[in-house]
Amino acid sequence: MQHHEEGSFDYIVVGAGSAGCVLANRLTASGRHRVLLLEAGPEDRNLWIHVPIGYAKLFVDAKHNWLYTSEPEAELGGRSIIQPRGKVMGGSSSINGLLYIRGQAEDFDHWRQLGNAGWSFADVLPYFRRAEDQQRGEDELHGVGGPLSVSDVSEPHPLCEAFITACEQAGLPRTDDFNGQTQEGAGYFQLTTRKGRRWSTARGYLAPARKRHNLAVTGNALTTRILFHGRRAIGVEYLKDGAKHVARAHGEVILASGAFNSPQLLQLSGVGPADLLREHGIDVIADMHGVGADLQDHYQARFTYRCSERITINDMMASLRGRVGAGLRYALFRKGFLTVGAGYAGGFFKTDPSLPTPDVQFHFILFSADSVGQKLHPWPGFLTSVCQLRPESRGFVRIKSADPAQAPAIQPRYLSAEVDRDVTTKGMQLVRRVMGQPAMKRYIVEETMPGPKVTSDADLLAFARQKGTTVFHPTSTCRMGSDVTAVVDERLRVHGFDGLRVADASIMPTLVSGNTNAACVMIGEKASDMILQDASAKAQMPARAA
Ligand SMILES: Cc1cc2nc3c(=O)[nH]c(=O)nc-3n(C[C@H](O)[C@H](O)[C@H](O)COP(=O)(O)OP(=O)(O)OC[C@H]3O[C@@H](n4cnc5c(N)ncnc54)[C@H](O)[C@@H]3O)c2cc1C
Q1: How many Å apart are CA 87 and CA 16, to the nearest integer?
Q2: Which residue has the least CA distance to atom 9 on ligand 1?
Q3: Would you say 349 and 184 are in contact if contact means Cβ atoms under 8 Å apart?
């Protein structure tokens, strides 16, 4: 195979996803550092990336999606679960459901309590604000003028209104901001869109930075290995157009390849559980059992309904007239179903009133299908899903081969912790309570799944095992901390190494209570500050010594 030397950079960022595009932008802003951004996927030119409803198409699009699946899951009757991940500029922020949720303040305070200085909510709030361009304007929790556009849904919808009213009738509060003083309540989601178009990090962060002379962006480039000199990362090897390339980093290599690929890349490079690496003939540089361990994810159970009125996305999609009409409304006014990705409305609730914060999230979605990514039902339909917010089940990511092109084994071990089974079941009972309220009744012809026969806790749990699926939030596979299996320290430096950090969903010590994109953007923002601070501290060192 041909081998090309691609020159040297101050920083090499591997992965142009939610966090990677933030890093590429912030690290090049001063003009002082040369940065190479490597991305395995192509440019984000496909129309369906930019029209929010295209979300559904990207589920099965091998050009822009890694299309992973989990290993058979013991608690799910041996089922494998789909694990989509963005493989394109913008990463998963280019294919995700667009919901803008940060998590609870208590999640970050918990990270701090685990020993991670600099990660309490008060510490990370400035980064959420700095990232944000909030349509509603600025306040103490929200920012304006940042690269990440956050917008309200284009218009209310009668079914969402009914759902929110039903929550109130069930004694659950209404809220107009899930990222406000408290997360609890039912309401409309805000979306990472601008004027009805998806606002991925490729759009918000990468596009403006690409004009800078000190940023090189290389797409369709699969990074295959980190190069080391002793315990110092000095560059990477990658494959592009069938040839092997080498790029050198004087400063740092920063992995932002996501919760599946960052640990995979470390393992392929000799950093991981020694027994696993030896099994695949990889020389061990550091025996680190935490690399790929502790995978967490949100697991959802979905209730589908046949609707009494033809006002759902199923109806729009069923007829040419509906599709053309929706297309015209979108083209002319940037309104309607095409502006919405996954959830339209939703809620964060406590399954037990004595809890300090919500422990389940509802997504209220204006279409229905037998399972995620499948054909929509040929009747008017909608669905409500529920997930437990702070699962205790932890699984792993482990290479299955020394070949970087082979997918790793992904095993979230959904529902393996008792509390996860318990809260999921209670959350399902709560869905039933809400959907049984007068406001929803006029719209529900029948609950098609799980159906009226499934009522006991045991039967609901059995249904969750048979039909539940991921909410697409894998995290924590290169966990931040100072204990023996933690992979990175609180400055996101890989323990025991120089010039090597991880900055993406993998570093979360625990999964946040909500959708994960905003937190990954925040991680990219905070990581870039720490990298630049460390660089300037280093630059001053010889002067001080002199
Ligand atoms: C279908 C779906 C729906 C979702 N819905 C929502 C939602 O509505 N709201 C929300 O907040 N979150 C949502 N999420 C989750 C959220 O988008 C992710 O948590 C977040 O984008 C992860 O960011 P990241 O930076 O960790 O990784 P990613 O954004 O996945 O980026 C990793 C990047 O690294 C690249 N890469 C990987 N390996 C290599 C390699 N070896 N060489 C070069 N490049 C590599 C990948 O191609 C990718 O571009 C969803 C996710 C999915 C998949």
Answers
A1: 9
A2: 99
A3: yes
- Give CA–CA dist 432/173, Å, rounded: 17
Closest by Cα among 470, 480, 87, 23 to 291? 480
The response to whether residue 473 sits with its C-beta less than 6 Å from ligand 1 reads: yes
pLDDT at 544 over 80: no
Amino acid at 281: G
462 Cα–ligand 1 center, Å: 30
Nearest to 191 by CA among 141, 244, 251, 135: 135
The CB of 265 under 6 Å from ligand 1? The reply is yes
What's the CA gap between 98 and 268, in Å, rounded? 32
Check the CA dihedral 441-445-448-451 and report its sign: positive
Mean pLDDT of 358-364: 98
The CA-CA-CA angle for residues 112, 472, 137, to 5°, reads 65
pLDDT in tens, 152-168: 999 999 999 999 999 99
Of 188, 253, 297, 516, which is best to mutate to test ligand 1, by the most ligand atoms within 8 angstroms of its C-beta?
516
The answer to whether the CB of 372 is under 6 A from ligand 1 is no
What's the gap in Å between 117 CA and the centre of ligand 1?
26
Q: How far apart are CA 68 and CA 411, in angstroms?
A: 11
What is the mean predicted confidence (pLDDT) over 121-144? 98
Q: Which residue bears the tokens 């129309």? A: 47
What the block records as the tokens of 330 is 């979108």
For the question of residue 473 being annotated catalytic, the response is yes
Tell me the CA distances in angstroms from 516 to 216, 322, 363, 506, 519, one per residue in order: 27, 33, 14, 11, 5
Atom 50, ligand 1: which residue's CA is nearest? 96
- Supply 496's token pair: 């025991």
Measured N-to-C along each axis, helices 121-131 and 517-545 cross at an angle, to the nearest 10 degrees, of: 100
Comparing C-alpha atoms, which of 289, 408, 285, 433 is closest to residue 351? 433
CA distance 519 to 108: 10
Instruction: Determine the Cα–Cα distance for residues 197 and 52; give it in Å rounded to an integer.
Output: 6
d(CA 181, CA 390): 19
Ligand 1 close to Cβ of residue 85 (< 6 A): yes
Query: Does pLDDT of 6 surpass 90?
Result: no
Percent of the chain scored above 70 by pLDDT?
99
> Which residue do the tokens 């996803």 mark?
17
Size (the chain), residues = 546
E strand spans, 366-408: 381-388, 395-398
In this predicted model, what pLDDT tens digit does every residue of 488-533 receive, in sequence order? 999 999 999 999 999 999 999 999 999 999 999 999 999 999 999 9
Report the C-alpha gap between 518 and 314 in whole angstroms.
Answer: 29
Residues with Cβ < 8 Å from 455, sequence gap 6 or more? none
Pair of tokens at residue 274? 């020694």
How close is the Cα of 461 to the center of ligand 1, in Å? 29
